[in-house]
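[step 3/7] inverse_fold.run input=structure_tokens len=277
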């Protein structure tokens, strides 16, 4: 019952926030860079199916910036914050309450032609080894697609190619793919290589879009008999509002891997981008 009340409370809060901001381009996939300075905020809230009861505002928070450097290049940065608070033990008498950073990201993005409906661009950058080991697990469960944000004691190298078809109205679609490279900074661990991928499709009516995303990644450097053993996939469904200044999105994520969806009912997400001329 407490879990149901927590989920209902969080949904109400996120809906209120979204509409109070005038009810970002994508949910978990890379957003399209523009000629404007953009400030972003994201929140992901996992609903655990068992174990301790996490507080309403436990989750992963993202604070991002995208700065135009030239006509063809933008600087991007992201600071993830993980909030982990829950009760455990007999009748919940013990409490765990800790906040910590994920891996801070610094990167570059090429900028697509703003006049066409087809927009393609590259993103590449580095994740610094700033993740807090004591809360990184909660960050991963909230946003597994962005593993490099939360795995502790690594330097992460990130690359991505994106292609989107977005007109004034009608059917919209896009895709992305690229490598994630994990370089350990402690111990004798091996460098690991993943490939992430994403597909999105939806319908745009004026400034409002209903969209779905199928996203995931595959482990390249791990030995596995079946391809499915290398992969973890996710599905997002939600709404996006493209405002002239403020552009929010609200979505819900389902994990399609038994090892995750047996423990996570789903993830509720909110994204807001503020565009400054």
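[step 3/7] decode complete -> sequence:
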């Amino acid at each position: 019952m407490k879990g149901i009340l927590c989920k209902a409370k969080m949904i109400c809060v996120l809906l209120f926030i979204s509409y109070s901001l005038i009810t970002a381009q994508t949910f978990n996939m890379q957003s399209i860079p523009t000629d404007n300075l953009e400030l972003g905020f994201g929140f992901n809230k996992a609903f655990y199916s068992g174990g301790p009861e996490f507080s309403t505002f436990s989750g992963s928070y993202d604070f991002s910036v995208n700065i135009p450097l030239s006509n063809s290049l933008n600087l991007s940065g992201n600071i993830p914050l993980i909030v982990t608070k829950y009760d455990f033990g007999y009748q919940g008498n013990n409490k765990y309450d800790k906040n910590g950073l994920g891996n801070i990201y610094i990167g570059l993005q090429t900028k697509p032609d703003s006049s066409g409906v087809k927009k393609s661009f590259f993103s590449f950058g580095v994740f610094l080894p700033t993740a807090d080991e004591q809360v990184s697990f909660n960050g991963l469960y909230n946003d597994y697609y962005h593993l490099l944000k939360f795995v502790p004691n690594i330097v992460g190298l990130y690359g991505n190619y994106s292609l989107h078809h977005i007109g004034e109205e009608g059917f919209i679609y896009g895709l992305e793919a690229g490598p994630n490279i994990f370089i350990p900074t402690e111990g004798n661990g091996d460098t690991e290589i993943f490939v992430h991928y994403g597909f999105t499709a939806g319908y745009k009516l004026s400034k409002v879009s209903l969209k779905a995303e199928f996203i995931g990644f595959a482990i390249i450097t791990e030995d596995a008999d079946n391809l499915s053993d290398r992969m973890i996939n996710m599905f997002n469904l939600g709404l996006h509002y493209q405002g002239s200044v403020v552009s929010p999105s609200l979505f819900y994520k389902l994990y399609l891997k038994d090892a995750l969806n047996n423990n996570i009912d789903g993830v509720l997400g909110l994204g807001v981008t503020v565009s400054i001329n």
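[step 4/7] annotate
The radius of gyration is 19 Å.
The chain has one domain: 24-276.
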